[in-house]
């Protein structure tokens, strides 16, 4: 799902039976609800994996370096995309996740222990214990809020029979527009292609159990304190 579905028209044509692109704007609750309804109508049953990966560093494209750079609009826009949006996606898609087959993650003793996995793409800078430099107010605070949402979701969606594993994941520094202004400060072996980062994260997702729900993991599979 994307705000720019036409961008993926060629890719969708290459995999017509496996890939369906739907419009979704995480800053528009109506758009989220409509996308969830479309998934329900087109695919019937449940959903096995949801990855909340929409994100913005700051409307200006650069993180704030001091209080002088902080603005209410910058905070609101960043929070809307990075924290509020993923929570609303969880609101409308969780019923589908609770009908999943448990295809991702690991189950104990050949018994299905969960129906689906929800992974929220967070960042190390959203950890209060990994902040030694300050700055980046909007981004840090929004990712910290997303981590709290992950924890809350893990509790609510961990009740009852149809449990959903909920985790936050730090993908590393990925070669995207979001991180491009800071690439010169990243060692070559730590600047990941999207494909490499996705592989790291999927390795984590495929190894998850209900014991991991509500936790925060780096791309290396190491648990990170919130």
How would you concisely characterize the structure shown here?
By secondary structure, the protein is α/β, with parallel strands linked by helices.
Q: How would you portray this structure in words?
A:
The protein has 226 residues and is α/β, with parallel strands linked by helices. It has 2 domains: 1-44, no CATH class; 48-92 and 100-218, NAD(P)-binding Rossmann-like Domain (Rossmann fold, 3-Layer(aba) Sandwich), CATH 3.40.50. Helix content is 35%, strand content 11%. The strands form 2 sheets. The protein has a 4-stranded parallel sheet with strand order 1-2-3-6, sandwiched between helices. It has a two-stranded parallel sheet with strand order 4-5. Strand 1, helix 3 (72-97) and strand 2 form a beta-alpha-beta unit. The model has no long low-confidence stretch (mean pLDDT 92).
- Number of helices in the DSSP assignment: 5
CATH topology of the largest domain: Rossmann fold
Rounded radius of gyration (Å): 18 Å
Largest sheet: 4 strands, parallel
CATH homologous superfamily classification of the largest domain: NAD(P)-binding Rossmann-like Domain
List the helices and strands and how they pair.
Elements: H1 9-14, H2 29-43, E1 49-52, H3 72-97, E2 116-121, H4 137-156, E3 164-170, E4 173-174, E5 191-192, H5 194-206, E6 216-218
Helix pairs in contact: 2-3, 3-4
């Amino acid at each position: 799902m994307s705000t720019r579905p036409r961008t993926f028209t060629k890719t969708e044509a290459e995999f017509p039976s496996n890939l369906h692109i739907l419009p979704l704007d995480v800053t528009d609750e109506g758009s989220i609800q409509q996308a969830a309804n479309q998934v329900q109508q087109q695919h019937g049953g449940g959903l096995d994996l949801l990855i909340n990966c929409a994100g913005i560093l700051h409307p200006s494209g650069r993180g704030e370096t001091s209080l002088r750079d902080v603005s209410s609009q910058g905070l609101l826009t960043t929070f809307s995309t990075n924290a509020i949006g993923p929570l609303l996606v969880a609101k409308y898609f969780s019923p589908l996740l609770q009908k999943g087959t448990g295809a991702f993650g690991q189950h104990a003793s050949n018994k299905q222990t969960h129906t689906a996995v929800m992974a929220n793409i967070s960042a190390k800078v959203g950890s209060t214990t990994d902040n030694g430099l300050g700055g980046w107010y909007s981004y840090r605070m929004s990712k910290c809020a997303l981590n709290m949402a992950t924890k809350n979701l893990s509790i609510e969606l961990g009740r009852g029979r149809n449990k959903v594993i909920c985790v936050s994941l730090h993908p590393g520094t990925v070669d995207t527009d979001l991180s491009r202004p800071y690439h010169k400060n990243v060692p070559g072996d730590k600047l990941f292609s999207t494909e490499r980062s996705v592989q790291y994260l999927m390795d984590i997702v495929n190894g998850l159990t209900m014991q991991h729900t509500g936790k925060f993991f780096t791309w290396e599979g190491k648990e990170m304190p919130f």
